[in-house]
């Protein structure tokens, strides 16, 4: 994983508020998704008092009634892993970044009934909410996170005989399109609809100049990895 993709992913799925502490990004989004409610130590700071720095983060998140989550990437300070281990932290939701280095020969999707909007809309938000089983609170947080993005976005809905069966989000920055919230309705899974959403987003991204793609997946999520 490159630092460029890490930065792109932070921009693509933003937070409600971000604090900067000596090279660390402290992100807050009312508790919805670890990605938007975690500490990202991707820029090297002074790190002379690492435990003090960690304690400051813990106090800030505690005041916000949020779990203290550190996102560990190849770019964290060398001593951070050990320092967190010393403080009793454990590993939760290990994930990986899958990349496609060329969009030149991507397959053409065979499901043609699709709707793509470059702007967040109520239809996509409602379909995504239902398919993911989000609460009303988390739906509102998602709306807040995505509605003010300055990046090119593709909100994709896939249909089967006019019935929504899958949806997803693509976000373009630089040469890359990031894939987010690729979800299939529980009644239509194992039919390849998730891949069809991905292919439609990739073709859209290619049409506006993207040449590569990435997706962040939790390890063990075989369907997402296979896409």
Describe the secondary structure blueprint for this structure.
Layout (H helix, E strand, L loop, with lengths): L2 H10 L4 E5 L2 E5 L10 E2 L9 H14 L6 E2 L8 H7 L8 E6 L13 E4 L4 H11 L3 H12 L4 E9 L2 E11 L2 E9 L8 H15 L4 E7 L3 H5 L1
Parallel strand pairs: 3-4, 9-10
Antiparallel strand pairs: 1-2, 2-3, 5-10, 6-7, 7-8, 8-9
InterPro entries: Acyl_CoA_acyltransferase (IPR016181), GNAT_dom (IPR000182), Rv0428c-like_C (IPR056935)
Protein name: N-acetyltransferase domain-containing protein
GO molecular function: acyltransferase activity, transferring groups other than amino-acyl groups
Describe what you observe in this structure:
Residues 114-227 form the N-acetyltransferase domain. It holds the Pfam family Rv0428c_C. It comes from Paenibacillus glacialis. One of its GO terms (molecular function) is acyltransferase activity, transferring groups other than amino-acyl groups. This is N-acetyltransferase domain-containing protein. The chain has 227 residues and is an alpha+beta fold. It has two domains: 3-92, no CATH class; 99-226, Gcn5-related N-acetyltransferase (GNAT) (Aminopeptidase). It is 33% helix and 26% strand. The chain contains seven helices and ten strands. It has helices spanning 3-12, 50-63, 80-86, 122-132, 136-147, 193-207, 222-226, and strands at residues 17-21, 24-28, 39-40, 70-71, 95-100, 114-117, 152-160, 163-173, 176-184, 212-218. The strands form two sheets. The chain has a six-stranded mixed β-sheet, with helices on both faces. A four-stranded mixed β-sheet has the order 1-2-3-4, with no helix packed on it. The mean pLDDT is 92.
